[in-house]
Design a protein that fits this description.
349 residues, mainly alpha, 0% strand, disordered N terminus
Length: 349
């Protein structure tokens, strides 16, 4: 029986929060969390049962009699029970305020209702949904102390859908901004101003990049073509042959050389050979000076400065830059449109 491929890999156990010992305050937080959950559950059920939407659905699925029974027999007691919960929460809030004043928890006595604004407003019947904030903060406090109030799977699912909504909203904002930017750069004046500003603010970086590219790509090719130590350099050979052709195509020189008896043809041959050597030596000497590091640096720097000062008021240049910007925006939009949440383990497509 073969071992699995990951048998030799030791996985670190997941670290769990260490539970704190139960104290009076901790027990009180648990009690208040239970009270708020029960209160909100009762409020939610009563609101659903009394809603017109459920009445419409009840007629469709045939539970109208059950809804009517609830409204006649259970709505008023549950509504009264919700009032008791509200009175209890008001009393509990006042007691905590008095304790905060006595213990000088806050810098001023009247800071308490502003710090716990969601609890104060949640005491109003119309804003009872704000009691969720109290339940949330109590639950988070218990979670930090090591008590798993909500199952971890629920927390992971909630985070997943939160990130899903946030990603979709941010994608819509980014795509809208990209479309607005694309519309703006279609204006010739805005396009030129954008390109000019970009070049001006990055002129030194562009020059450095061009010089680096010239050193990397052009300098080796120049050294290969104009190497003074290479006797078979193509340019040197062509220069020598060019001088030979110039001598041959000079009839006056050949006429005077042929007037010399016996040695004229020999002298003519030597002149052609010397001309070829002179051409090669001139090219080699020029190459040696041209390939000097300081000369190349100065030449490449001048080329780079000339490129960065190019006139952008040119149809071909505008078309090229427009295509580059358009391709960049399109690629960016395609990347933004990739829905990363689809690759999450909570959803299987």
């Amino acid at each position: 029986m073969t071992n699995p491929p990951n048998a030799g890999i030791q996985k670190k156990p997941l670290t769990k929060r260490k539970k704190q010992p139960l104290t009076g305050k901790l027990i009180y937080d648990m009690f208040m969390l239970l009270v708020i959950v029960v209160d909100l559950t009762i409020i939610s059920i009563d609101a659903i049962m009394m809603s017109s939407a459920l009445a419409y659905v009840g007629e469709w699925i045939g539970i109208t009699e059950f809804i009517s029974t609830y409204k006649e027999n259970f709505h008023n007691p549950i509504h009264t029970l919700g009032g008791f919960f509200t009175v209890f929460l008001i009393f509990e809030l006042v007691v905590r305020w008095i304790i905060a004043i006595a213990s000088k928890t806050y810098y001023r006595w009247f800071f308490f209702p502003f710090v716990h604004w969601y609890e104060v407003l949640g005491c109003l019947p119309q804003l009872r949904a704000l009691r969720l904030f109290r339940a949330f903060f109590i639950g988070r406090h218990l979670y930090k102390l090591g008590y798993q109030v909500v199952p971890q799977k629920w927390i992971d699912t909630g985070k997943f859908y939160y990130e899903l909504i946030l990603e979709e909203l941010s994608d819509r904002v980014i795509l809208t901004a990209t479309d607005n930017f694309r519309t703006q750069i279609k204006n010739t004046a805005s396009h030129q101003a954008l390109v000019q500003k970009t070049i001006e603010s990055n002129r030194k970086e562009i020059e450095t990049m061009i010089v680096s590219l010239l050193h990397k790509e052009l300098a080796p090719r120049l050294q290969q073509s104009l190497n003074p130590t290479d006797k078979s350099s193509p340019i040197a050979i062509q220069a020598g042959e060019a001088i030979q052709d110039a001598i041959v195509q000079t009839p006056e020189l050949r006429k005077y050389l042929r007037m010399i008896p016996i040695a004229g043809s020999l002298i003519e041959s030597q002149v052609l050979t010397i001309g070829q050597k002179v051409g090669e030596n001139v090219v080699n000497s020029v190459s040696q000076r041209l390939l000097d590091t300081q000369v190349l640096d100065k030449l490449f720097q001048e080329i780079a400065e000339g490129i960065t000062r190019i006139d952008i008021d040119n149809p071909a240049m505008e078309s090229l830059l427009g295509n580059v910007i358009e391709d960049g925006l399109t690629s960016f939009e395609e990347q933004v449109k990739v829905q990363q949440w689809k690759h999450n383990q909570h959803i299987h497509l």
